[in-house]
Amino acid sequence: MNLPEVLAPAGSMEALKAGVAAGCHAVYLGGKLFSARAFANNFSKKELEEAVSYCHMRNVKVYVTMNTLLSDKELSSALEYARYLYEIGVDAIIVQDMGLVRVLQHSLKDMPLHGSTQLFVHNLEGAKVLVDLGFERIVLARETPLSEIKRIKNHVDVEIEYFVHGALCVCYSGQCLMSSMIGGRSGNRGACAQPCRKSYQVVDRDQNIYLDGHILSPMDLNTSENLDKLLEAGVDSLKIEGRMKSPEYVGAAVSLYNKAIKERPSQKDIDLVAQNFNRGFTKGLPLGDFGKKFVSMERPDNRGLVIGKVLSLKGNTVKITLTEPVYSGDGLEFSKKRGGFGGLEVHEYLDPGIHVLKLPFSVKKGTDIRRTFSVENKRELDEIINQERKRPLYGTVSIKKGKVAFLTITLDHREYKVTGNKIVEEAKNVPLTLESVENQLNKLGDTPFFWKELDIFLEDNLFLPKSELNDLRRLGLEKILEKPVKSFGKNEQPKIEKRNEAQGLSIFIEDISFAKRLDSKKCNRLLIPFHKVEEGLDLLDSDFSIYIELPSIGYGKEMEEMKNKLDTYYQLERIKGIYIPGLSGFSWVNDFPNWEIYASEESNIFNGQSVAKFYDLGADSFVFSPECTLDQIKDITGKIGNIGEIISYGQLVIMKTEHCPMSLYKDCINNQGCKSCEYSGLFYLKDSLNYLFPFRRVNNRSLIYHSRPIFLGQKVRSLVQKGLSLQIRFTNEGEPMELLQEYYYNLLYGGQLKEREIEDVLKDIFGGYTIGNYKRGILGGVM
Length: 783
Fold this sequence. Notes:
With about 775 residues, this protein is an alpha/beta fold.
């Protein structure tokens, strides 16, 4: 079995050098623009050139992230930036935006593309779409089961990159709108405010409290003791998360996984990483952790390592026992008596055993003592990250009378040959010796090379200036580091076909019973969940044109069963089309030529080129990302024509997660009992401002909704006048469905608009409504 790539994060040049010194095979990093870690230091253009040169000299690849959604105004700059990356020799670009994919594949065909985890590819069907688009590698969703990785590797030829260590998102990447909808800071634009790390209560409709704590905050991922399972599944690249982390963290993590790919790591190796930073460790959902083994309710931050306990106390004087030595300069942390944590720096050596300390705060008896900073840990890590990584050279130098000298260097099975400028003459005074030639060629300075073997063929009594030997060495190294000349395509964006479609009103219903309250004559498209189709065919008025909304997430048998059912539904005249979230369903569109194909809002369509890319994939229409502004939508429609829909009303799903908050209450060890669980129905996350975020378990996965519905009212009038279609989404029975259907139908086709009445009802039910990002936009990058 070939050893996998160890892929290091680099948020700074110091972190990059730490990863390289620790033995990584590749690094991933972001520039100042278009990167999904907008708050990392990131790299300027000059630093990027230095980074690529530094890494390539040490046989380390460089992948650059351009994994954010881009507006139409940004695509030209993004193309220029990508061309620059191509020119300086970057090994691949990591992308999310499908519009950028279309632009790059038109103008920069030779640039290798890696599909970001933000693309939400988590199964074989999605992988097939990216492989057909020419992607060399896919960064799979962190939730992807090992069985699905095997399924992908058995059916398509693509590299699989998989997160193995570091911070985890509780939501499927690319599908989280929580930070965006609450505060306008979008994870899809690299500016996530991490609301998942905040504290929440879980309550029911009557405000009874079930849980209180960090309900959505996962522990840090650590798969170092389970790599054999990942490698057996077919993972090619082991991705370490941490572009916001220190050089020491990067060096420790890379060192751990470099050892782990060869042998089971020791506890000391794991502690070296844990001491630097950890939120507690989980091996992750795919490897079987769930509930309390996945999420840490107690705290969302670094907790160091437990090295002792408080035995007794008298005021602020405490008797403690230590299991490990503590050195001067170490940082210790205690649980405070009144809640929270207190820390202090130790200024003396303490050996294992019992000690008495006076603390500047009151603590709890029996509490653990945690070391949050270790002088010895820092010393060990400094040794790792400051070591020089050098590559072996094999050389042959030939010096013969009457000829020019030449030097042949072999590096990684590739041969480089350079010749001198001067004819070798007979020595008049001091002749060359093997030692003098070797001394000159050995002066490799601060280059990352050393002579593993150097064969010198030198005839007797010859002379050659030292400068000539120096030139041979210099020319040889320059030949090794020479950059290939790269040719570019045209610096232009591909054309977008303009389309028009009949304007209409689409209505999504979570429950088929909601249809009884709707007027089928005032609904152009009725969207129903895939798992409700049979029920819908039995109960729905035949006047409804039914469209099936496919599940966002599916693996193995789920996907096979879904495809089989779709083949059956395709024979039914009443079903007019399918509504596809993400990329997976687009692997099937050619099997349903007579259906209308919709790319849902989960496709993250954020610019005109993205629309065109989904046309290329087989979409007939689409729904704009709810992270678009109304002005953005106007710009896009100007390029693509009057086609597409905007969600004008609905309590949006802001998180899709395998994690079940109620598993923390029930102590569940897996998701096998969700269908019969009494706690799989509607509950609420209550935040510190008393906003209620509904959540429910659907198909063994949790959907978390925004606390308030979007209601755009007449703000979409100008878009309606341009021919845009509207969509409204009903997810709970208490919503004013009749009023909203009548309102938006009248807005489309003319009639009385009872806006004040709807606003009053929404205020009574939800406490108000939001216009989301449609007006304010989202933060992250430039717009």
